[in-house]
Write a structure and sequence with these properties.
This protein is α+β, with helices and mostly antiparallel strands. The protein has 18 helices and 18 strands. The strands form four sheets. Strands 5, 6, 7, 11, 12, 13, 14, 17 and 18 form a nine-stranded mixed sheet that branches. The structure holds S-adenosylmethionine.
Amino acid sequence: MVDTPADTLCEQQALSATFPPQFLEFLQSNHINPNIYTMHKKLPRYVRIVQYAQRTSEEIQKLRLEVEADAGCRVSKVPGVPGFLEISDQSVSMSQINASACGDIVGMDVSSAIAALALSVSPGDNVLDLCCAPGAKLLFLAELLDASGACESKRGSVTGVDIAAHRVATCCKQIAKHAGHSRGHVRVFIEDGTTFSTLAPRDRWWDPNAVAAAAAVVANADGEAENSGRKPKSRRKKVVEPGKPWFASRPLSNWYSNSGTELYDRVLVDAECTHDGSLSHVQKYERWGLEKLETQVIGDNRPTSVPVLQSKLLENGWRLLKVGGTLVYSTCSLSRYQNEYVVAGFLSRHGEDEACVEKINVLDDIQCKGSITADDGSVAGGIVASSIWMPQTDVEWSEQGLSDKRSLFERMHNAARLDPMMSNTSGMFIARMHKLKHSPQQPLEDEIVPLVALPLSARVHAHAHN
Ligand SMILES: C[S@@+](CC[C@H](N)C(=O)[O-])C[C@H]1O[C@@H](n2cnc3c(N)ncnc32)[C@H](O)[C@@H]1O
């Protein structure tokens, strides 16, 4: 069904009436188009097929048809994004799909998949996920690593870090439920990603004979890791404690008794943000009470404190990355203060000989594969990325006070935005960075800031309403 301009206008007016004024002001001061929230019902729902690489094409086709029958609408594969299905009707609930209850599929937006795929995980990589909970990307990365042949090469690991204990508990539960074979590579820490310093597991730590033992590790509902049966009772239960990792696999925990010597090959900084681009996140507040949008999304002066946190997470992720390695910085915010200005601040501390923002090849692949086509030949859409934000004219550069900073924006032109108004996905910013050499010296704590802070007037305003 095609919307008329009158439909769209009504939706926009309804939005202005429903969102709390402070949230609308936050959108305005962050240059975020409020109309993105009219897209939620128009976008498809995306799901990921768990353990995709281990399934035959016949099994995948059978699963797709089962999901289609339960959903009662068209379900198609997403071109260029292996293992993802698109359910054409966003209002379909996961609870009505049997494959979800059986753990064969999990809900995950394609924008998140693109952020993880942008890392280009290769066989044997040691991957660090610095803001990992509740674990959607971590699980996907573990599967990608497994599918890349980690099992055969006996190398590779995924290390998750998150500061929020309750979210790590959910992450551990997800690993226990869905990671299957790939859990043999995973460990998770409750720690502050801005100071996390544990190095990657040593090369060739992994013993295929121990995979069965890894399967005996489960996480209970409180986020406690248990080893079933084998150890004396006194040692059986390990509560996940700050500073101590929860191991999804015994071989990895055996390794941990030795100290790490390696930096990471791949680092994902899927940073804490105001989640304003995640349409499903904002949608949840319709059930929880829209007034909570103010306290939880923009309360505690978050619009100004979060970009500083993001800059510190990015800086620490970079410190832990090998020369020759790849770091992906992503957020599900569409605020330039949390995206372009954070990356520009980072590039101002790391010269062209140290850091280069690379093309996100997977986006090209997805976009060139074009529209999503169902088996019946009908076209459902297609994923389209937008360029980063930057002033367009000389006047705009000087108005923004960025005339002498152009080169920083030019250096990041390969980063991308997924804007729900045109991307056919939820909102996401993705920058993929290649490390050319180590920094001669680490920046001082108070130097680690975004290039531009939220203007004072907007800051005072957000603060005055708290
Ligand atoms: C956007 S969410 C991450 C989503 C996750 N990557 C996924 O795909 O499921 C951001 C996460 O950052 C975590 N976080 C916030 N501050 C942090 C810090 N200082 N160190 C590590 N994690 C932090 C939050 O607890 C939250 O789980």
